[in-house]
Amino acid sequence: MRIAVYLAHPRAGSFNHAVFDAVVGELRGRGCEVFAHDLCAEGFVPLMAADETGTVQAVAGAPDAQVALHRAEVATVDAMVFVHPNWWGMPPAVLAGWVQRVLAPGVAYKLGTADGEPAGLLRAGRALVLNTSDTPADREESEFGDPLQQIWAACVLPYVGVADVRRVVFRTVTDSSGEARAGWLRQARQQAAALLV
For strand 109-110 and strand 119-120, is the pairing parallel, antiparallel, or unpaired? Predict the structure, then answer.
């Protein structure tokens, strides 16, 4: 299988980095071809140019080599993994920009009219989202409605044709013990392995 794994966290040594490394190692250990991208370390530019803002017409071409590479890769993978913290109920800006610049019309979806239903173009049938959070689960749900679940499982991934969206949240991270983190890393590896079944 070809699987793309994306990390969105700017601080080297973060727990998100440990999750990313665990997932990449697990998948490569199982013989997968893995496209591993630490978006912050790679300097992915999240800012869209004016000519990238269309929604109906297929994009004419990538504005730079990095975006071209990501568009080419994402079109060929069987599954995707996203590793990122919950910041203000959103993914970090670098990942939001990646979604907007890479999952472009003609690459990830096709839309006949501005108000029409999209046809997803990605071959990836499944995706795994691994989030870290410092918000307790009951508060996340009761006060905020779990916006990351809505973003990934309702707004983004089904739009581009990914029907099987899995998500795990590791919380609360800041005050977690080494034992808890070790357990979460085991769980991340198990979830990654489950993508192959």
Answer: antiparallel
Q: For 39-125, where are the E strands, in sequence order?
A: 79-85, 109-110, 119-120
* Mean per-residue pLDDT of the chain: 94
pLDDT one-digit tens code per residue, 130-144: 999 988 888 888 889
**Can you read off the two tokens belonging to residue 60?**
């004419």
Tell me whether strands 119-120 and 79-85 are parallel, antiparallel or unpaired. Answer: unpaired
**Do 167 and 154 form a contact (C-beta atoms < 8 A)?**
no
Q: Which amino acid, residue 194? A: A
φ, ψ for residue 108, nearest 5 deg: -110, -20
What b/e readout covers 154-177, taking b as 16+ CB neighbours within 10 angstroms?
eebbbbbbbeebbbebbbebeebe
**Which amino acid, 26?**
E
My answer on whether omega of the bond before 135 falls inside 30° of 0, hence cis, is no
No. of helices (H) and no. of strands (E), the chain: 6, 7
DSSP structural state of residue 58? P
